[in-house]
Fold each of these.
Amino acid sequence: MVTKIAHGQKGNTAGVRDELWYDKPAEQWLEALPLGNGRLGAMAFGGVKHERIALSESTAWSGAPTKDGVNPEARTHLDEIRRLLFEGRYDEAQTLAGRSLPGRMKNFGTNLPLPELLIDCDMPSEVGRYRRSLNLDEAIANVDWIADGVRYRREVFSSHADRVLVVRLHSDGENKISFRLRFSAAVFPGSVQVQSDALCFDGHAWEKMHSDGRAGVALRIEARIQADGGTVRALQDSIEVSNANDVRILLAVGTSFGDADPKVACEDTLHAASGKSYSQLRRAHLDDFQPLYRRMVLDIGVSSKLARNLPTDKRRKVLEDGADDPELLALFFQYGRYLTIAGSREDSPLPLALQGIWNDGLASSMGWTDDFHLDINTEQNYWPAEVCNLSECQTPLFRLLEGLSRHGQTTAAEMYGAPGWVAHTVTNPWGYSAPGGLGWGIFVTAGVWISLQLWEHWRFGQDVKFLRERAYPILRSSAEFFLQYMTTEPKHGWLVTGPSESPENAYLTPTGGRASVSMGATCDRVLVEALFSMCIEASTMLDVDSEFRGKLESARQKLPPFQVGKHGQLQEWLEDFDEAYPNHRHTSHLISLYPECQISPRKTPQLARAAEVTIERRLHAPNWEQSEWGRANLVVYYARLLKGDEAQRYFVGLLAKSTGANLLTFSSGGVAGAEQNIFAIDGNTAGTAGLAEMLVQSQGGEIELLPALPAAWRTGSVKGLCARGGFVIDLSWGGGRLRSAFIRSCGDAKATVRYGEKTMRLTFQKNQPLRIGPGMFVETPNHNRGI
């Protein structure tokens, strides 16, 4: 029997500023509410008679380490492919590359969804005053309703402090909690065991689409019940609770990743958590989560009372229809921060994958897998970490990079005969570094792009030990590879990469064919310059490797220049090719604009205009491929172009057109082979980074306040934004103009601060904030403006 839920009653109250709320249960995955502790993820649906909690875990991977990922023909044909490309025989080069370059991904694997935790409740058919919510400040999902005059409440949170998922069922009446607890069917082999107060699932993350069907971690899920009053009875494949007053369910997941024992991991975790009361578990969870979340506060305006009284799904729809709702935009910004904390903690075993730590079972059943995409998606996952005051959340990414750089040495030697390390478009927990398939997977600077996160961590935090011991060794080894791997282009004498791809687009060859492999793609040129510049600066600061630094400086001078093509666009390739897919979602050459700053409107205005033409041409091409991360790219691009109104328009579009009812972003059905909308976390995180970029920028050697403030946000404030150089910034504005800013430095430092066309030079003492007003700035000489 379907439960009837009465809507519009007094119990359906407006949400608080940092809350998503709804007046009905979720029916689909993109309506459920995400919880996570950096490893264990859950999606709470909020059903009354039938609650679903979709489970996931970051190390629940199929696959295994690969020893023969490099195509054995790659090194043999490398010089021949280069010669064909230099001679303009692109079709032949493409054919040869397709045969000899793609790697072997037999046991690459994917993250897999776990069985769902199902709670079948003994509940009347009609309920009233239903409300479900996710409080971002508490990281707790709540469900609240009234049935037969009794109020029922359910709370769910994933505790990082105690490493368990906690579910509490409570009512105001006595002996009113009755339900049956069970697991849904799994997508991989496994079995259920029932103990007196515990439900266990043991299985293996095996599947045949991305591995051989026998490679993958062993895993265990264990749920224990603690009931006050009533009875608890073990059934064949479930546990029945009858007439209890209050019930807690504690759930742990263990896998064999890293040679761990899944059963021991679950037992140890649950033993420790079971000795605590619910209030102790809840308090420990809040004490662990809130110090991170509360580092930032954002106010970009007050929404109407009508908007604030709407459930979040209806509120999003009204925004899509053209309404103004600045508080919903601020909520979406904080949601990106919330997901970063929930999905990636300092001790997480793995970083955020394509779907973070959550898994809807759709990406993992696609050809592109739920893995680590290094041609933009994983980078976007971590774009907000530094600027949005969550620096330590990047730590699991750095551990993955350290392993990738080790495995990438084998690929560098076997495929290219070069020292150092290299990685291509995709990787997995075991450090896969060989190429993927032709057309998307031959991206030789992917390892450099993801390594930019190391450099950003140093630039924001100024931790010299981190630079010396962790960042510089990885960057230096990568630079070693490119010094030997790159070759001289015969026409101009430029030093170029190749064969490589500009992911994931292709160009039209002179014969009318399509090719993706090329020499000297612009995205490669951007990343190699960034790599060499990082190593030069680091070696100078650390006073090491002077001879190596000289080689890098010489090589950097030989890189090809940026070029403007026949349409006024920034060229994507060394030659002015026409794009095979003018509507393509990828704009890889605009890495130069963001996250790099090799192109900017102040320093390189003509190239900035060419970058803008590139964006305009993509957007105006028929059937532009709309994707969540593509929309987020538009936010950061226009912020860097200092066009706040455009950045704000695309931020609104990202929220209004590329999110589900739960505000999680999705890759649209019809794009990249997807038949339906598939959740991907990168739109949430990159969107958050984009809004931050509108308010503070620090990439050009100075701190710029309100560089891309849109006209729509006339009054507002932000607290806790970070800037490169070790600065934390609070600022407020009114009437569209800066009112004041407080800037604090993590150490004694000097910095140039910009507001519009005026700058000021300031000296900071450690942890002593300076207050800045708009009247303190002075006009900047023209030669400093880059005009």
Note: Residues 153 and 279 are 15 Å apart (CA to CA).
Amino acid sequence: MRSRRVQILVALVLTALWGAGIYAAHANGRLRFLDRLEATLTDWRTQIRGVQRPPDLVTIVAIDDTVVKRGGSYPLPRADLARVVDTIVQFKPKVVAIDLLLVDRSAAIGDATLANTLATGPMVLAAAAIFPSDSETVTPGSEDGPLAVLPQAERFLQPLPAFADHAEVGVVNVATGQSGSPLSVPMLFRTRDKVELSFPLRVAARALDEPLTVAPDHLRLGERVVPTDSDFALPITYYGPRRTIRTVSAQSIFDGTLDRAAIENRIVVIGASVAGGGDFFPTPFDSLMPGVEVISTAITHLVAGDGILRDRRVRITEALTAILLPMLLVGLLAWRRSALGIMAAAAVMMAWAGLNLLAFTHGVWLNAATTLAAAVPPVAVFAGVQLWAGSRRTQYFAAKSRSLAQFQAPAVQEWLARDPDFLSRPVRQDAAVVFIDLSGFTGLSERIDPDELRDLLKAFHALIDKTAVDCGGMITGFLGDGAMILFGLPRAMPDDATRALTCAIELHRGAERWIASLPPAIAGQLGFKIGAHCGEIVASRLGESHQHITATGDTVNVASRLMEVAAQHGARLALSDTLLEAAGFQGAPGGVLSGPLLARVRGRSGVVTVWFWRDRDGTDQDAAKAEMIG
């Protein structure tokens, strides 16, 4: 027991170390394959949560296929874009955010018209970060302090100075997971000598008209706190499929049908949704969602404060879960090494999955992939070791059971397994008893080799064992060159006497054939005698540290003494009248029954009615004499 406790303790410690290692490795940018799994699990949780109605704060003015067909080209000419912006400004929005990269020169008159239009209202323009590789993360450097975790760009693509002079600028890049779906939007970017705000953050700060403060794990817009992830990224969760956020076509401006209510006092984001434009991302609800709607989702989160939470407290919860959940599962499997333990562990896993989903639907993003990676391998290994150890224990006990079966009847063995207190107190009941013993064996043992004698006795015991088992009897013990067979344990049966009679006759026939098969020098010196009787016995356990089951009483004594009666009258099988009557004996095919004889048995007052049985073609020495008895 102590050894098992130590093993469980070691398993729990190793499980805790594994969980802590998995979490630390992933938090430090390793095990990136878990990001793909987390992206898939996040998509599932978002779909289960379903479509949500977004706060009605943002309007997307889409440069879509209708606009391109009208103008005949894409990108939209700067003069046309100026007309779109001018119309929007006239309807007095909070801020106009242009999610288009205005980095190249075009027709001078178009650029000049757009520049003048940008000066007429609150504007935010998009810049782009150019990275030296596909990765948007860098290894933190101690010299950079907390900003070391920011995405480090090689340079920024800024709008033309003519445009940037009349607007604020923010970096429009989003962070896509392993699945290609944007799961967060970085709020800050850096180069070697410069830090830039993101496009959504610039827009939100301008719309709220509040000062911006950057702090570890959160941003502050005036009194509003915006929690961020460890790398100052804003986790985003999608409200629904494309156009869930209010969207109008820019064509309505050219047609003069734009609804003022869709613009006035709102955040307006101008962006492209034209097919083939390239700015599309897969999301849980859409295979292709325009990038402008992804950006608008982040802006809505910042302004409305309804984003999904993934701050320092959430990460601490994840770390504790990655350590404690696997330990709990391993503990349950160790506590109940059975189907109940497996069911309890499965229930805990289902409860964790349910709580994780519940937290997600209520705006808290707990990483599921890391927890699964922390829990599944140690639980699988421990369960495998448990199964292996259980298989070994099963094999061990099966071997013990087979060993026990050599000393105890299978029926009694099964009964003891069900009821360990079987016969802990003596029980009186009816039973049938058969005794068999070899004649001349003692004298023979003085004249032959001990090994030959052992083989002879082994063969005789095997004959008894097979016959007793075939007839459903229990050998209570081999008595040297004989045996006692009991019918009625572990419980009395209506056919006990019938089976005992069958066993006695089969023993007679088997013993005759066996002796006849021996060398003449040995067969001539051996004989056997059998006695069978039925009645009340006292069944009990005898012994203290080494117990055995046996039966005592007058019935046992009479059955034993009947062997003497058989020998005295030249017979080999003596049956009591009580046994024959209980068995409903109607004659034995191939055998001859002689009697009855009223015989006295040694050590008992009164007489017993005895019958003698032999094979019809048997070789009993005094068969004729036995037939005449009575």
Note: Residues 368-405 form the longest helix (38 residues).
Amino acid sequence: MKIRNWIIALTAGSLLASCAGDLGNYDYHTLKEPVITGIEADLSVLTHTRLSLRPDLGLEAFPDSDYTFEWRALSLSDNTTMTVLGQTRDLEYDVELFPGSYLLLFRVIERATGIFWQAEYNLQVSESTSEGWMVLCAEGPEKRARLDMVSKVTGETYLDVLSENGMPELRNPYRIQWSRFADSESPYYLLTGDGATRLGRSGFEWKEEYRLQYEMGNSDIPAPEAITDVTAAKMMVYGSKVYYAECLIGVGLFGPISGVSFRAAPVIGCNISTQNIVVPAAMFYDLDNRRFMVYAPNLRSNDVGGYEALHEMNDLITLLGEMDNGGKVTGTAFERFPQGKEFVWMENTKYDPNNTSAGIIYTVLRDGEEYTLYGTQLGELWNAVSLGGPAFAVGRAAWADLSACPQIAQASQFAFSSLRSMMYYAVGGSVYAVDLSQTPVQTTQQFSLPDEEIVCMKFNIYSQSENLNRSYDLVVGSVKGDEGTLRVYEGFESDGDFRNVTPEVYPGLGRIVDVTYREMLK
């Protein structure tokens, strides 16, 4: 601890004048200098916790009637930002400082003269929200985007953690997500109907330049429902445009791909099992013409053949058969990709039954009362240059008639396992499991949440290897009135049968829209 004594400042002129004409007209008194002890020189605290300090001022009395007190924190990152934490002798402060290093200043000020004494301490602020569940909520009738956090660091739940970060109010939230291809200092995307923005890695801080509009290569200001990381790129859908950002070297800018004059479903399908693909492909569903489309920008390269980048899926398969290197299509689950059906759901998984480094992309389509599932794998479109990668370009991996599944027409949420060939869907507060490996498929009710509505259900895909088995846990967000509850059902040991699994339960949240696990960034 460092202690500095300070006296009230006097100008040089007034000091000389007082010396020349000093007639003894001053009320001198003995200063009582505090001996400040009781606080360690180096302090550490977590955000959203309480910092309580009780300084000892020694044997002399320093009554509140004669003295004031002040606690300030000086940010060492810029040496200019000073924050007042309290103005009482003892400090009780709910930590809202951004994570970082600070100089903590404690002052004892004599009211009559302004003379003060100051003690200095080193303060390190760390995140209590550096790992845990990010829960995106819609608050009130205007559906204000609100982020709650269930912290693995402290075991506590923190509500509305963005309320003090300076971000303007956004409404109609869609999704909270992490992206490997976002700026490393602001890797989280908050997507809403009012627009999209990134959030910083330290305390979810916000800056004007985090708005998605600054990542656009044109003047568009899209409000996508999801941003998907594909091999060395990011993609998103908004309105009648599908956007692509090349991220092979750095964080690229989004631009609309050519040839799209139709509305596309908001989800991009891609291979999330590997990044080791030279000519990757991404798929999406054309809502206007009701067909699967595939986009592979590297097909334009003269080294590959100088082909068009955008194709209807069946046309791509024809093209693969004409390639000199014999682009390979595998799987006989269905003969052709369908056309004319209504889009219901699309989801990327890491389920890879043949260890081909290509997880299955599941799509649910509807035709009247008929519900059908299609499972697609996307591999290397140019096998000749594949270095230990997938041995095929496109795989027709799964097909199932879902029409007989109970209440499938009322399903509000779907989730597909990366562990087994399993689909889950929610109706009201009930969850059903569908074994896609059986013909016909077998459906079992997993559990029911009385008086609650399931509004979010997913298998969170983790990026760090130590969390691999957690990707098989079923994550369920439900609401009752305006209160949300998060439940996490263990999936690896239970082998995806959640009927007898007791979940982790986190109540007292807002009206849940989306849930994503924030991993400890390295």
Note: Residues 313-322 form the longest helix (10 residues).
